[in-house]
Amino acid sequence: MTIEVRNLTKKFGDFAALDNVDLRVADGELLALLGPSGSGKTTLLRIIAGLDWPDSGEVSFDGENALSRGAGERHVGFVFQHYALFRHMTVFENVAFGLRVQPRAVRKDEAAIRARVKELLDLVQLDWLSDRYPSQLSGGQRQRIALARALAIEPRILLLDEPFGALDAKVRKELRQWLRTLHSEIHVTSIFVTHDQEEALEVANRVVVMDKGRIEQVGTPGDVYDNPATAFVHGFIGESIVLPVEVRDGAVRLDGKALNIAANGYAPGAAKLFIRRHDMQIGPAGSGSLEGSVKHVRSFGPIQRAEIALRGEGKTVIEIDAPRDRELQPGDTVSLQPRRYRLFAAQD
Amino acid sequence: MSEQALSHQPRDDVHTEPGAIRFVIVALAVLFLLVFVVLPLVVVFASAFSRGISAYFTALGQPEALAAIKLTLLIAAISVSLNLVFGVIAAWAIAKFDFAGKTFLISLIDLPFSVSPVISGLVFVLLFGAQGFFGPWLQAHDVRILFAVPGIALATIFVTFPFVARALIPLMQEQGTQEEEAAISLGASGLQTFFRVTLPNIKWGLLYGVLLCNARAMGEFGAVSVVSGHIRGETNTMPLLVEILYNEYQFVASFAIASLLAMLALITLLAKTILERRLDERQVPSDH
Fold first, then answer.
1. B182 and A86 in contact by Cβ < 8 A?
2. How far is A344 from chain B (nearest CA, A)?
3. A182 conformational bin, left if phi > 0, alpha if psi -120 to 50, beta if neither
4. Is A189 in contact with A28 (CB distance < 8 Å)?
5. Considering only CA atoms, which of A220, A199, A215, A345 is closest in space to residue A274?
6. Are strands A251-254 and A240-248 parallel, antiparallel or unpaired?
7. Residue A76: how many CA atoms within 13 Å on its side-chain side?
């Protein structure tokens, strides 16, 4: 099932939760909506599900207008952030709910419902919990039951709102992998909302980065990480060093001093220079275009993270990641040269 | 070092008064309860049975007494069932939707609690009485509201309206709308959602509200007294009959009816305690 969203706008009072959003989701895709809180990602998800209605714009499933249908008629499986399991029903009855409320004409008989629920509980590997109540389950178990319940109605689309938001770090990691495996098995078009970039990059086929009700960039995880389209995306995804610079006479200048990097045709004026932490090359003093003194070094895993106070008016302190093989000591004077970088307009 | 060790010592006495003062405070509270709550209750039952058990049941068997009991049950049945429906609807609207004038509606629901019951009764006299707003029209069409069952029912409904709504609003607000949204997205209709998801979640709170509503509906005196007209055997509820019999020096009969109301109060209290315990158990958050 493909999903198409056109010119979608939704306001809550004066606050524009969605501002003219366009999006196409291909059949069988696993898409992440990534953004900070208030970026409109959950509102977009709820509108697709039919739990909220836009002020203007269109939503269509396979070219068919979805807005003319209520949430119950869209065959969308929705997994809520806090699971929203029915607290007075057992796990079994929770999963069976979508099958039991079907109109009598299409409703399965009791044996078929039992078989289907069993199948779903096997799928989420929790069939041994079928007689428990939601309050007796752990967070990760509730999450999987919520997913099984959503899948019971054989949804054409699966929507997940912050699916791992309320779980601790270890369970999150396991569930991420599990969700990706599950998706490759059932292959239903899925969209999940997250504010966690790592989650989005690790799980999704494509990532939609949102901010302030607008889509900033749509791309594969590699795309949005390596070729961020806007300053916001660069700053939001991955750790970045941001330096206020000025482009003048074809050179990029920090505190008036030209850095040894090309302006790539960037228009003269104030700009922001974005560099990934690991894209800053460290060399002996005098070998690069930036100079600074090492203040602090921490080593973990394959890298060491150094805090370096840049020489200059700004007294800027930046953090860079360097390979472990290079000896760094607090107090060392080093020179820095950006290997890769991006320039964006200063006002963002 | 020594200071740190000191500060880590548990100081039980910090928030506690000396034993003597504690004893005096508790004793005062118990004494107060004995004089103002237990003693009257004992007097009611003692007076009711002062001429023996047979006199007690004879008094209750009087046609007047039976009529009052029947009327009270009828009024309670009408007003509790209507307030059950209104209360659930009002609580549903307030807890699950956002609309203009919501705060106003909440304070309106509380109005019957803040108005003297006598005034509540008087409102209906002003509306439906012979000189009242609808009076002439009602007389012309031979409809009796005042000094009849409809008037008593109206006054009782008014006075007892807040109980169900008040019991449900905080409960429903706390539960939020996510379970309902989940039900809707799974294809449930509005009614299915209500009966399969919302109602089971609020049933203990609802029962609690109904219980208190019923106790008040049966015990209401002021509002009912104004609209009843005190027609013997016709428009006297139990509380009204208690007063009438007492004024006629029929103490045993009066206290016999009063003892029924007192028993209702005790049963209500017991059921309320049990329900509150159930509600507390349900409050344990099911997520997080």
1. yes
2. 41
3. alpha
4. yes
5. A345
6. antiparallel
7. 32
- Which residues pair with residue A303 across a beta bridge? A300, A323
Banded model confidence at residue B32, pLDDT cuts 50, 70, 90: very high
- The nearest CA of chain A is from the CA of B189 a distance in Å of 8
What is residue B120's DSSP assignment?
A: H
**Nearest Cα to A120, choosing from A104, A98, A103, A135?**
A98
A167 in contact with B at a CB cutoff of 8 Å?
A: no
In chain B, pLDDT over 90 holds for what percent of residues? 54
Q: How far apart are CA A192 and CA A162, in angstroms?
A: 7
Name which of A285, A284, A326, A286 is nearest A306 in CA terms. Answer: A326
For the stretch B8-45, what's the b/e string if a residue is b when 16 or more beta carbons lie within 10 angstroms of its beta carbon?
A: eeeeeeeeeeeeeeeeeeeeeeeeeeeeeeeeeeeebb
Q: CA A174, CA A164: separation in Å to the nearest integer?
A: 10
pLDDT at B288: 38
Determine, for residues B184 and A71 on separate chains, whether the beta-carbon distance falls below 8 Å: yes
Q: How far apart are CA B167 and CA B76, in angstroms?
A: 18
Closest residue in A to B286 (Cα–Cα): A135
CA B162 to chain centroid, in Å, comes to: 9
Q: Chain B: give the shortest CA distance to residue A201, in Å.
A: 26
First vs last Cα of chain B: how many Å apart? 40
For testing the chain B interface, which of A90, A91, A101 should be mutated: the one with the most B CBs within 10 Å?
A101
**Do residue A51 and residue B184 have CB atoms under 8 angstroms apart?**
yes
Average pLDDT, stretch B227-254?
Answer: 90
* Sign of the torsion angle spanned by Cα atoms A89, A90, A96, A98: positive
- Helix ranges, chain B (H): 2-7, 19-33, 39-48, 53-61, 63-96, 102-114, 117-128, 135-140, 149-160, 162-175, 178-185, 190-193, 199-219, 222-228, 238-247, 251-282
Q: Does A153 touch chain B (CB under 8 A)?
A: yes
Each residue's pLDDT expressed in tens, for chain A with a length of 348 residues: 899 999 999 999 889 999 999 999 999 999 999 999 889 999 999 999 999 999 999 999 999 999 999 998 999 999 998 999 999 999 999 999 999 999 999 899 999 999 999 999 998 889 999 999 999 999 889 999 999 999 999 999 999 999 887 788 888 888 888 889 889 988 899 999 999 898 999 999 999 999 999 999 999 999 999 899 999 999 898 888 888 888 888 788 888 788 888 877 788 888 889 999 888 888 888 777 888 888 888 888 888 888 988 887 767 888 888 888 778 888 888 888 888 888 888 764
Q: Which of A76, A87, A101 sits opposite B286 (nearest CB)?
A: A87
